[in-house]
């Protein structure tokens, strides 16, 4: 069984302090209780050492259920000072030797998820970092599996993404070499040509990383796992757990706060999503499956729930609107609204009128009242995020998941319960509600106890929105009448007749 296989195994994890990494650590400790040591490579950050960062897991709600049942669970974690962007991972020789002697499983989860990152930064994290992890793995004596986390969006030109590795478009070593000797200006010049069909450097470098993985297929027991858009947890250990506002969750939060009024999106296209707990379950049992294979090929799995739990963007947004009105965010700036649009020109006009102009007005008021300005900065971040996201919402994606789902179905019934993957009968509304409440509580730190106050605030915003719309209609009508003589003459003709007919009606009724 999966849990038996993990018994006594030592795990090395990169990216263990990130969103998916933390969920993976928690699940391994909770469901594979006899697991050995979990080594987490991470760097010091914001004045905290790796050991302190891992110790802070105890303060995160994600780990609360685990620690309630097993207060000493985190003692199995060993934090290691390291950095995938540094030569030899920044590991001390004695630590490197210890890892190569003791580790059995490697999960390479670390990556730069910044879609706006430049090619040099993305290459350092996603390509060079992967190469360094592979080089470390070559020296691991008892390695049973190296699971590499990729993305389902790394082959953008494919109409249907099969569960296989594709031929490289460039030699990844050539790209690495170019990043070493080219200056920033040269890199900026060649980047558009290199990216070609790719919307950003993230998907491009993740694709190149898969090419590196393919090179090592005959030397290491490798597996490639490609999740689609990862969203908050569906079921465990907490419903709606999320710790960042990336992707659709950021869109919902911005719309819920009233600062996002237009979105480029094809409403009838399928949303390729997977809850983080489902993705982590898949990573765990697929790593076990790969370890038991006797092959030098690199099995590849597309992790998406779109085929088993189909939902289109239009349905997702409509349900999100309804849920946000029931579970509003605190201190919204305007009544939640906005519309999905497919025409980029119409979208640009509405963004300018309904987002950009109000942002400048708000910041102008803040300036007059000697308060800190923030709205233009917020809108700039939203605009950048939406510009990057719209590539994924304006295309129909098709990911084959036969191997992924087949591996799940091969599990014993009791392990299908533990490492669940939804195959049908999913309450999508509940999933969206949990995601919105989760973003509210875990990301924005807005206590659920504030909901009554937030609902009152939402009612106030509703009437403010309606009054504003009415005033805008009157203003627009006045401008039309003022600047177009024909309309003014028409109103002058109609108004007396209307007044006279009204007066005659009253006189007749009185008589």
UniProtKB/TrEMBL annotation:
Residues 355-446 form the Fatty acyl-CoA reductase C-terminal domain. It is found in: Membrane. Residues 13-283 form the Thioester reductase (TE) domain. The keyword Transmembrane helix applies. GO terms for molecular function: alcohol-forming long-chain fatty acyl-CoA reductase activity; alcohol-forming very long-chain fatty acyl-CoA reductase activity. Keywords: Lipid biosynthesis, Lipid metabolism, Membrane, NADP, Oxidoreductase, Transmembrane, Transmembrane helix. Its EC number is 1.2.1.84. One of its GO terms (cellular component) is membrane. GO terms for biological process: long-chain fatty-acyl-CoA metabolic process. CDD domains: FAR-N_SDR_e, FAR_C. Belongs to the fatty acyl-CoA reductase family. This is Fatty acyl-CoA reductase. It comes from Panstrongylus megistus.
